[in-house]
């Protein structure tokens, strides 16, 4: 089973590029950009990764962003992830980036996206990894800021396939951003939103994603299982759910294996992803391996989870068919 997991072609739909910053790279960038850190060694950074809920994770996550300052920094951030993805036999990625986490520090939007885009081109050329970029808005910032960043990205529209919503969900429901996402839809972007595990009013938030925002995909979404009608609607629409097992274990002390199996049994298109692997110390293959350590998953279930990722990706029909043939023929 481990060989099967390592070898099968994979797609990743839920990975934050800023969340792929490894401690050693944080220190290298800090030294290059003359940024003072609160820790003296990479080991001390890892020791500080004592997350027990979403806010405790975000505190460290945003602090580490300060080392990212130049176009080359963003290039390295993305390309280092693609190199690691190649080791996991990931052939397609839809990575997130959080521009507001950088523009609020005085970094130009152009600097961020040019570095990431250059890495995408090199990853396809050198590693054979195809990718499409998703720009996320920070939900604990204002809708006005989100709209400003949506307008900021329009000159680079061809480099971004969709928009998402992440960060602290408390008191920041999807409907706060209704106008922003309607504008994004009109501009031709695909839509997704985080519905993090066990957040306040989370089931209502998932319904808002479906009815008010009309998303094309849901990030996380485990709590949909609390509402039978919601599960049926998600299955009916064929919406992907980008589940992140090891991330869940940090935040809610569970890999949510039972929930993942339940989604598969209900015909819901659950997918497996790494979320913030530099912090949770687990890339995509590690997440799959964690699943089979905790619960019995058959090869058919692992294949289905991988197929779901390609099916609910934002690739063209032809590219989906190309990759699904590889997944279905793998043995």
The strand order across the widest sheet is 3-5-6-7-8-9-10
Write the element-wise H/E pattern from the N-terminal end onward.
HEHHHHEEHHEEHEHEHEHEHHEHHHH
> Number of helix segments?
17
Shape field: globular
Low-confidence stretches: none
CATH superfamily: Metal-dependent hydrolases
Spatial gap, N to C terminus: 10 Å
Quick one: how many beta strands?
10
- Provide the number of structural domains: 1
Describe the 3D structure:
With 331 residues, the chain is of the alpha/beta class. It has one domain: Alpha-Beta Barrel (TIM Barrel). Helices cover 53% and strands 13% of the residues. A seven-stranded parallel β-sheet has the order 3-5-6-7-8-9-10. Strands 1-2-4 form a three-stranded parallel β-sheet. Helix 10 links the parallel strand 7 and strand 8. Helix 8 packs parallel to helix 9 and helix 16 packs antiparallel against helix 17. The longest helix is centred in the middle third of the chain and has 19 residues. The model has no long low-confidence stretch (mean pLDDT 96).
């Amino acid at each position: 089973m481990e060989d099967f997991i390592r070898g099968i072609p994979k797609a990743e739909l839920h990975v934050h590029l800023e969340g792929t910053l490894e401690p050693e790279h944080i220190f290298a960038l800090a030294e290059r950009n003359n940024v003072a850190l609160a820790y003296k060694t990479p080991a001390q950074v890892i020791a500080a990764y004592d997350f027990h809920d979403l806010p405790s994770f975000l505190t460290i996550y945003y602090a580490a962003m300060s080392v990212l300052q130049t176009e080359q920094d963003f290039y390295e951030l993305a390309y280092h992830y693609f190199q690691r993805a190649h080791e996991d036999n990931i052939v397609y990625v839809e990575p997130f980036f959080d521009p507001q986490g950088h523009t609020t520090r005085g970094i130009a939007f152009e600097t961020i996206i040019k570095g990431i885009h250059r890495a995408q081109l090199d990853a396809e050329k050198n590693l054979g990894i195809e990718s499409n970029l998703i720009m996320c808005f920070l939900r604990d910032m204002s809708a006005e800021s989100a709209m400003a960043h949506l307008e900021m990205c329009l000159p680079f529209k061809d480099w971004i396939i969709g928009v998402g919503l992440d960060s602290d969900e408390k008191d920041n429901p999807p409907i706060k951003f209704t106008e922003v996402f309607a504008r994004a839809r009109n501009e031709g972007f695909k839509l997704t939103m985080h519905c993090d595990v066990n957040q306040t009013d989370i089931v209502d938030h998932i319904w808002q994603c479906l009815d008010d925002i009309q998303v094309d995909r849901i990030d996380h979404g485990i709590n949909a299982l609390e509402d039978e009608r919601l599960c049926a609607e998600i299955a009916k629409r064929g919406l992907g759910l980008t589940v992140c097992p090891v991330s869940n274990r940090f935040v809610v002390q569970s890999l949510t294996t039972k929930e993942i199996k339940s989604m598969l049994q209900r015909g819901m298109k659950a997918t497996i992803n790494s979320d913030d692997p530099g912090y949770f110390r687990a890339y995509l293959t590690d997440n799959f391996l964690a699943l089979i350590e905790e619960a019995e998953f058959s090869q058919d279930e692992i294949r289905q989870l991988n197929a779901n990722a390609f099916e609910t990706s934002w690739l063209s029909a032809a590219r989906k068919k190309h990759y699904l043939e590889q997944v279905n023929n793998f043995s």
